[in-house]
Structures are given as C-alpha cells and as structure tokens.
Amino acid sequence: MALEKVRDLLCAAQKANTSVIAFDACDYNTIYACIKGAEVARRPVIVMLYPTMRSVFSFGAFAATVKDLAKSASVPVGLHLDHCSELPIIIEAIRDGFTSVMADGSAMPLEENIAFTKSVVDIAKIFDVDVEGEIGHVGQVAGGFDYQNADTFTRPDEAAVFAGRTGVASMAVAFGSCHGMYKAEPNLDLERLQEIDKAVDVPLVLHGGSGIPADQLEKAFQMGINKFNVGTEFFLLNTKLCKEAYTSEELLKNPFAGITSIRKGLTEYIAKKLELCEMKV
Ligand code: 13P
Fold first, then answer.
1. Homologous superfamily of the 6-276 domain (CATH)
2. Which residue from 128, 134, 180, 254 has the highest number of Cβ atoms inside 10 Å of its Cβ?
3. Sign of the C-alpha dihedral, residues 205, 138, 27, 37?
4. How far is ligand 1, taken at its centre, from the CA of residue 34, in Å?
5. DSSP class of 27
6. Is there a catalytic annotation at residue 82?
7. Are 112 and 134 in contact (CB under 8 A)?
C-alpha cells in the first residue's frame, strides 16, 4: 500500500464516527513501530515529525523512510508535519516530501492566526498538501499551562469563522487537553467539543494525547474527534526501552540485540493504543 492522504484518512474516520491515531516519531525504530503496530492492530496510522527534530532526522530522510515502509505496509499510513508556525520551514517540509502539515498559529491573535494559516493553505494547495490549523490554544504542561481554564478553550463561533476563512482540511481544538504528562487527570469538556462539532464540518483534532483516560477518549472520538495526537508517552517509553536494552549484558555478545527488544516494546505499545480507533482495516 502506498502512502495515503491524511485528508482521506480523516474523512473516513469522520464517516465512521471515530478517530485515526497519529504518533510523533523521532528515529527509524519509532517510525517502524508505528507502522508495524498498525499492521498488528489492523488500523490506519499517521506518523508525525516535530519540526525541531529535523536537526537529528532531516525532513527528506524522514519522509522517504515513512513512504518506503508504507509501500510494503498492509494498512493505510499517513505522513504529517506536526506543530509549525514558520512558513519557510513548512515550505521546506513540503519540498522534501511531506504530504500534510500543521500550520500552528494558535499563539497568535485570531486575525493573525487566520492570515498565517490561510497563507499556508494557499501554498499547500498548489502541491496538493493537506493543512491542519489550530484555533483556541493547547499549551504545554511544562510551561505551566492551565488546561482546566475554560477561557483558553476553543469558541465554536471562532472555530466556524476560522474554518470558513482558512479552508483548512482539519482543525486542532482546545477543550481541556495539554501537551506533556498531566499533573492532574484531565477532564475533557465534551459539551464544548459537541458545540464546536456542530459549528463546523471539518474533522477535529485532539492534541495532548498522553495520559487522557480511555473512557474520555472513546466519548471524544464519538463526538467529533477524527485525529488524535500522541507524543510524550511514546517518547518516554522509547527512552525506557533504550535504557534497558543498552545496559543489558546481552549486547556484549550481540551488539544488535537492543534494536530488536526496543522495536518489540514500541510495536506492542502502538498496537494496543490503536485499539481505541474503531476503524479496523
Ligand atoms: P503529547 O506529547 O502530550 O502526547 O501530545 C502530542 C501532541 O499533541 C502532538 O501534536
């Protein structure tokens, strides 16, 4: 199977009233585990890269790796550039093979966010690349963001204006989630999500996926979330598995033994997480 368009995966999820799950990856093992885990779970998957990570894994090499593994995968695979608020970097990613990008203007005032996001959509359209925008703001636990504060949540009327004026293919929205490991269990405002979903037609995206309880996710997926982003817990698991693998005595006999055990642990995690997605392929 070749790489699939993210927009097609999200439209299929919207029709099926569920969410595709998107994981941030950082190296060959994490990309490999996303795709192998998806094959085990028989679910579609989206593999994402943070733009800051291009210093360790270039855009071109990352895109080529995902495309190469997608070619022989038995399930649909999407490729996406995560949070980026700089147009030249987004253009670089598109030039180097990314087929979907996030234009994150959520820290900007509304009009500036609309203008920035629309400028990305206009360019991306030429190359048939999908754009995810963000309206409202999902912050960082590490930055002290108050994710329980409803003043930071997406307003349905603004979401409708944002979708209409930018032409985004999908839209990240804020209703009680935050990036990083939560200090206190999140309590998603599902009523707000339903109001946003009523106000717009485009697929909605939930960021800050690490540590949200499964029962809340199941409801959010039924109420309009069609793309669900996970990063931190996957990276922390990778660190733990690497630590265990590279301190094992076994490595002195077989220097490559670590790779196998890291991939196995990561693949099991992805397969289990993907069971939350109701779209079996
Ligand atoms: P977490 O790192 O909190 O899982 O969030 C990931 C994310 O939303 C990436 O866009």
1. Aldolase class I (3.20.20.70)
2. 134
3. negative
4. 15
5. S
6. yes
7. no
> In Å, what is the CA distance from 267 to each residue of 44, 168, 234?
14, 32, 10
State if residue 82 touches ligand 1 by the CB under 6 angstroms criterion. Answer: yes
Residue 61, judged by CB atoms within 10 A of its CB (0-12, 13-18, 19+), counts as middle
CB-facing half-sphere around the CA of 145: CA atoms within 13 A? 23
Prediction pTM value: 0.97
| 13, 225 contact by CB (below 8 A) | no
CB of 46 closer than 8 Å to CB of 78: yes
Distance 178 CA to ligand 1 centre (A): 8
Domain ranges for the chain, please list them. 6-276
Distance between CA 196 and CA 164 in Å, rounded?
13
Ligand 1 pocket residue status of 227, Cβ below 6 Å: no
SS3 string, 265-279, reads HHHHHHHHHHHHCCC
For the segment 208-252, what is each residue's pLDDT rounded down to a tens digit?
999 999 999 999 999 999 999 999 999 999 999 999 999 888 888
pLDDT single digits (tens) 182-193 = 999 999 999 999
Ligand 1 atom closest to residue 178's alpha carbon, by position in its atom list: 3
